[in-house]
Design brief:
The chain is 36% helix and 12% strand. The protein is of the alpha+beta class.
């Protein structure tokens, strides 16, 4: 370690002379994590489009007459379990009061309770 012989040199070294180091003023904003905008993958895009279509359908059923029933027939490339999970997720996320029933490969949506369950007593709000 070199020994500094004069006090003037010590003062200059502490006043901003950092030799080979590049030093600049920084702000706290530079340390915050930056959100990177990425393009959605094809799978994410398909899920997003499906969920938006389900939201539009739920909005249409929810704003229509009380007796409106909509039937969603699944295509050959759609799986019943996936679609049922998607409907349940969107109904829960939106807080919709729409009821859902599944018969075969068709999903029925209505504002009223749909008949034909497995015999379970309906929940009572007590």
């Amino acid at each position: 370690m070199p020994v500094l012989r004069s006090t003037a040199r010590r003062r200059r070294a502490s006043a901003g002379d950092f030799g080979p180091l590049k030093v600049r003023d920084a702000s706290l904003d530079e340390l915050k994590p930056q959100k990177s905008e990425r393009e959605m993958t094809p799978r994410q895009r398909a899920i997003y489009e499906r969920d938006e279509a389900i939201k539009r359908l739920l909005n249409e059923v929810g704003s229509g007459p009380q007796s409106t029933i909509k039937a969603v027939e699944l295509g050959p490339d759609q799986k019943l379990a996936t679609m049922r999970a998607a409907f349940n997720r969107v109904i829960k996320d939106t807080g919709s009061s729409v009821h859902m029933a599944v018969r075969g490969t068709t999903i029925y949506l209505s504002r009223e309770a749909l008949p034909g369950g497995r015999g379970r007593k309906p929940k009572t709000n007590a």
